[in-house]
Structure formats: structure tokens, C-alpha cells
Amino acid sequence: MQVKNDLRRLYRLRNLLVHQAYVGEVDLSRFTRRLIFYLEVILKNLSYGLDQNPKHNMIELLISKGKTYDLLVKKLKNNTYSDLNIRNIIYPTCILSN
After folding, report:
1. Rounded to an integer, what distance in angstroms lies between the CA atom of residue 55 and that of residue 37?
2. Number of independent structural domains in the chain
């Protein structure tokens, strides 16, 4: 939920700056730190995925990430996750195979 809220705040700030030419005082350092953190997590995850699946391209990996996430959420909602531990939630088994 924190990620969703951060992204909403960033999008609202973007809209203020772009569409309304907002020139008031804004502390961009907090927004910048959060955005950099999210980008690092995403890039590291994609890099790891490409290393683990060298036969596949970026598009296939991104599609696989989406499907893997949907499957994980479905299993968690239905309480059918057989090996529930923090590592498997953070690094779910990717449906993309070599």
C-alpha cells in the first residue's frame, strides 16, 4: 500500500508541475529518494530475472512477472500457498522457464 500511495503522490506532484505550472516550494528530496529506491528494486529484479532466464527477452520477462504476481496474489487470497515463507513471497517462483 505504501508503494501505491507514494506513486499517487508523485503523480499528483507531476500534474501540479506540468499542468498547473506550480512554482511553490516543494521538497523534492523525499520524492526523489523514494523514486530512486523503487527504480533500483525494479531494475535489480529485472536484471536478476534476465540472468536466470537468458533464453528470454525483456518483453517475455515483463509478461512473466505480471503473471507470476497475479498467481501469487491469487494463491495468497485463496490461502492455497503450500510453502508460505517470506523468501517465497519476496522472490516468488517465476512462471518463465528456461
Report:
1. 28
2. 2
